[in-house]
């Protein structure tokens, strides 16, 4: 049986579709390609932080320096830091990269230990990060994309300096 011009066109079209499908990721299933966990920056690269809000305080950029204020009047700030400590905290958030973990991590999504909210230049919505503890480890959930990243106690203390991690309910 010979193919006419229409038949050969159909063969070429279906061959191209199969090749596109194969090149777009189907080959990973056949080759056993598994996405390995990798370090990911917490904040977007080259982000410009305007404010960082914790539950009890707000850290905001004033020109080239930083200041902290209590979110509620007549309430003292838990972490009364120097301008240099505030700059180091913001720099830590901007440069840290954490390992993304499997989404089947066991922690109670209704009870975060702490919340950090960033306002970034050029972004319409704030970036919200929730700190959780489960299975003896700490987890950071980026609310917008639902990314879950694992972190150890030392890193959690660096990112959330106003929390007393020695309290029994956090440990």
From TrEMBL:
<keyword id="KW-0812">Transmembrane</keyword>
<protein>
    <recommendedName>
        <fullName>DUF4340 domain-containing protein</fullName>
    </recommendedName>
</protein>
<feature type="transmembrane region" description="Helical">
    <location>
        <begin position="7"/>
        <end position="26"/>
    </location>
</feature>
<keyword id="KW-1133">Transmembrane helix</keyword>
<keyword id="KW-0472">Membrane</keyword>
């Amino acid at each position: 049986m010979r193919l006419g011009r229409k038949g050969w066109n159909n063969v070429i079209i279906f061959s191209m579709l199969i090749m596109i499908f194969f090149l777009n990721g189907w080959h990973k299933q056949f080759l056993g390609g598994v996405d390995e966990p990798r370090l990911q920056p917490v904040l977007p690269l080259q982000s410009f932080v305007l404010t960082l809000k914790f539950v009890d305080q707000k850290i905001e950029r004033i020109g080239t320096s930083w200041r902290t204020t209590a979110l509620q009047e007549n309430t003292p700030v838990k972490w009364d830091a120097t301008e240099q400590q505030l700059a180091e905290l913001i720099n830590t958030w901007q440069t840290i990269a954490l390992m993304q973990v499997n989404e089947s991590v066991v922690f109670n999504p209704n009870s975060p230990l702490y919340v950090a909210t960033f306002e970034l230049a050029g972004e319409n919505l704030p970036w919200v990060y929730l700190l959780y503890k489960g299975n003896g480890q700490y987890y950071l959930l980026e609310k917008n994309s639902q990314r879950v990243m694992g972190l150890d106690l030392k890193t959690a203390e660096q990112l959330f300096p106003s929390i007393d991690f020695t309290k029994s309910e956090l440990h």
